[in-house]
């Protein structure tokens, strides 16, 4: 299905699963609806500003796009309408009044009457409902579930609100089971996922995905973790997680099979986020012994070599209209960061990691907490390669 001239930034199926909606980037500026089973495009519309999010109504009759200075409703043609050629999409812009210069970042339809709620980049709610007390956090993303409205907030929590009445009535909040610099190897009891240090830093949720037909929803966080929550006994609780590197994976190596320090089949990765991660994708958790955790069983261990939390978080990307506010003299070249290479000793009892700033970290793998036993300022620039000699001391 080729119709966009440049890249596609958003795709979405309608709730009735009959129509696919695709939205092009700022340079493409098209919204196209598709009969995805036949591959025919049903209608096209011209976008006048970049789109940050799209919401589709419950009855699949319309969608709304939100972006910089824009909230626009689009009325969707259906494959069942018998259209055999592309038509123009009918649309209308929302009257924004004092919000006409605002950047909108997310939206959702609230109920079958097509009432819609949008969130701005500054964390405000716009349209159907008001929130009496927002505290010190801002709204970032939205999703509708049968119980009410899920709101991802800048303090890392997902809050559930009731949609009955003219206000958003608070029902409950859900904290992520992880925080920055948390080692999943220490998560072996459900209670540990609820108790966090007082100075814990939570990644902010960037997106929410929920379905009215499923008792679960998924949250995507700024550290690129995906957390699934499930409904059990009228409450929501953590179900499972996917925890990967934030940014590029710069190196990967297999752990020596002759060593007993890690389970057979363990793989080590080093990333631009300044972490070394130990993975084992074997299906039998019994082979992993005491190393397996309830948070992300395939991720055995994380060693943090850099204390900078910014390396663990993706920068938030919001489309804006007009010239970039960035420094025109700033370099756009990507500079190396984090762990560039790793090497495990032949006996599997120790390893060394080289970083982008020329540091060598010597890590003891013979202990379960894998302590860093030495840090060497070895090079003026990035360390690109490492190896152990046949002698244990070199």
From TrEMBL:
InterPro entries tied to this protein: WD40/YVTN_repeat-like_dom_sf, WD40_repeat_dom_sf, WD40_rpt, WDR62
Zinc-finger is among the record's keywords: no
Keywords: WD repeat
WD repeats: 242-280
A Pfam entry, by short name: WD40
PANTHER family per the UniProt record, alphabetical: WD REPEAT DOMAIN 62, ISOFORM G (PTHR45589), WD REPEAT-CONTAINING PROTEIN 62 (PTHR45589:SF3)
Protein name, as recorded: WD repeat-containing protein 55 homolog
Organism annotation: Caenorhabditis japonica
